[in-house]
């Protein structure tokens, strides 16, 4: 018998019997299989959705008091915080991201449970200024059974952002984590059960996107689909969701500009660029993948940037000193290589990096790469999702703003780095992106709405907006003084609406 663990679906409060087909989960840093997961079939998906609908209708969660939802989610936060070290190791193993990044990221994940627990507890409805002796209350109800389709790059963080908001609002949740890195999410079922979540309210199912994910999103019984992934996945799901009248939130790709102005000293500008660009080996939706550098600091910036990028320590992700970990798989290495080749054909100059790498002969790595290029080049407009960064020399503030806004279809994150206070406000106001950071990048908080414009998505994660997007608004109009007289023989000043 194999000693590779199999982690089966979490359904109705237990790990189900394994599916006959299994999918291997691979550690991208050494190519070893670390676990297998289910490949959930269409019949099984349909059965789980049907059971989830009954749990929503008959189960206690949708009707639970806000105080009860608060208690369960806050306890889950406490349990998760106590187990963070275990999750850091697992997340590093399944994503290949450096352990020092996973320590910083995972330490904050319980905050999403705490925040949405608190929102559920303090959320107040409204009473509108309705004319006449009428009271109009607005209340928010859970939607029903919601599907959450999550990516591999921040497996637990992204899943918990969505799960916490949906549960706080009283929904039944079916999560389909990425088949490439599902293991931390699959552990959330037991943890939430221990916190007091009733069985069947959180279902976690595994499988390939084109099969299990597709089967799930095709269900007309869903009340919402919340996707974080690529634009092609959105385009595969959105038409059927539209036909079924299932609303969608979509957190998609990005091509974040990092706008670097001459009031910065060069060292500060380089630190900003390294931070924005190379976290997660460039595999985040807000990777600062276009450095828009003002001509007045360009030469000095490039000199220091080249030196610092060459010094980045690529290595074993479990080593605390490693700064650049693996990319997710072989296909990702190949995609990075193809981007570098096209960039050279487009007239770009590879300043450093540009090649696949291994650690002790193993794994899927790519050298941190910077490419000097023009704003219209493929590498400067399209999402690489790897450690390949385009640098563009810009003549003026206006040119930086124009390139930031016009040369890509994405508009998720952007950062503006300057010591000129007026310029900071001026540029931030003109940049078209769902999130603009001034003298920062990657900053994220459960209270701060997160989501893009244009092809970066629709809707928001985080904040009251995310909570509300998991509810439906009900208007109750209570008449305490108008008799219906419209069809009386003598009607005078009667009101019908
Ligand atoms: P992906 O689109 O390949 O997969 C995302 C999820 O969708 C996975 O669970 C996958 O199994 C599933 N899926 C794939 N095809 C499907 C289909 N036809 N029907 C239903 N489900 C399907 O994306 P990925 O490679 O896991 O993640 C990288 C992408 O996600 C990048 O484009 C990145 O920018 C984006 N992303 C966005 C954000 C954000 O907040 N905007 C955050 C992280 C990642």
Task: Write structural notes for this entry.
This protein has 497 residues and is an alpha/beta fold. The protein has two domains: 6-252 and 456-476, Aldehyde Dehydrogenase, Chain A, domain 1, CATH 3.40.605; 257-438, Aldehyde Dehydrogenase, Chain A, domain 2. 39% of the residues lie in helices and 22% in strands. The strands form seven sheets. The chain has a seven-stranded mixed β-sheet, with helices on both faces. Strands 10-9-8-11-12-24 form a six-stranded mixed β-sheet, sandwiched between helices. Helix 16 (421-430) links the parallel strand 21 (413-417) and strand 22 (435-438). Helix 2 (66-82) runs antiparallel to helix 5. The longest helix is centred in the first third of the chain and has 17 residues, at 42-58. The protein binds nicotinamide-adenine-dinucleotide. Residues 149-153, 158, 176, 178-179, 209-210, 213-214, 217, 228-230, 233, 236-237, 251-254, 285, 383, 385, 412, 452, 457 line the site of nicotinamide-adenine-dinucleotide.
């Amino acid at each position: 018998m194999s000693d590779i663990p199999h982690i089966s679906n979490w359904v109705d409060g237990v790990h189900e019997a394994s599916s006959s087909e299994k999918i291997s989960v691979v550690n991208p840093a050494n190519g070893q299989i670390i676990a297998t997961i289910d490949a959930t079939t269409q019949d099984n998906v349909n059965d789980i959705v049907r059971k989830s609908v009954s749990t929503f209708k008959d189960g206690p969660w949708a009707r639970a008091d806000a105080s009860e939802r608060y208690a369960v989610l806050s306890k889950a936060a406490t349990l998760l915080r106590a187990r963070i070290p275990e999750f850091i190791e697992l997340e590093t193993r399944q994503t290949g991201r450096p352990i020092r990044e996973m320590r910083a990221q995972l330490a904050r994940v319980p905050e999403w449970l705490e925040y949405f627990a608190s929102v559920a507890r303090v959320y107040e409805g409204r009473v509108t200024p309705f004319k006449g002796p009428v009271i109009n209350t607005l209340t928010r109800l859970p939607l029903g059974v919601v599907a959450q389709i999550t990516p591999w790059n921040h497996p637990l963080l992204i899943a918990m952002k969505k799960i916490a908001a949906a549960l706080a609002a009283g929904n039944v949740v079916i999560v389909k984590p990425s088949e490439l890195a599902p293991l931390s999410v699959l552990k959330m079922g037991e943890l939430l059960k221990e916190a007091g979540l009733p069985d069947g309210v959180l279902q976690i199912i595994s499988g390939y996107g084109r099969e299990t994910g597709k089967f799930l999103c095709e269900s007309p019984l869903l009340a919402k689909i919340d996707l974080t992934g690529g634009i092609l996945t959105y385009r595969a799901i959105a038409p059927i969701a539209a036909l079924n009248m299932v609303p969608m939130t979509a957190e998609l790709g990005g091509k974040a500009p990092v706008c670097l102005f001459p009031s910065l000293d060069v060292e500060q500008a380089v630190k900003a660029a390294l931070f924005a660009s190379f976290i997660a080996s460039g595999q985040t939706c807000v990777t600062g993948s276009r450095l828009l550098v003002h001509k007045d600091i360009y030469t000095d910036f490039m000199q220091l940037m080249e030196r610092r990028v060459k010094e980045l320590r690529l290595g074993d992700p479990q080593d605390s000193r490693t700064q650049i970990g693996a990319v997710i798989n072989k296909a990702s290495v190949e995609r990075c290589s193809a981007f570098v080749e096209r960039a050279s054909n487009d007239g770009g100059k590879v300043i450093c990096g540009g090649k696949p790498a291994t650690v002790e002969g193993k794994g899927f790595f790519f050298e941190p790469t910077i490419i000097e290029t023009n704003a219209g080049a493929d590498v400067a407009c399209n999402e690489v999702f790897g450690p390949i960064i385009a640098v563009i020399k810009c003549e003026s503030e206006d040119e930086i703003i124009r390139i930031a806004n016009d040369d890509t279809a994405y508009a998720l994150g952007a950062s503006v780095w300057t010591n000129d206070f007026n310029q900071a406000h001026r540029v931030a106001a003109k940049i078209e992106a769902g999130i603009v950071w001034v003298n920062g990048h990657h900053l994220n908080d459960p209270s701060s709405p997160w989501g893009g414009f244009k092809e970066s998505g629709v809707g928001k994660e985080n904040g009251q907006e995310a909570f509300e997007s998991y509810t439906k608004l009900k208007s109750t109009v209570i008449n305490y003084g108008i008799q219906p007289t419209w069809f009386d023989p003598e009607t005078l000043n009667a009101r019908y609406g």
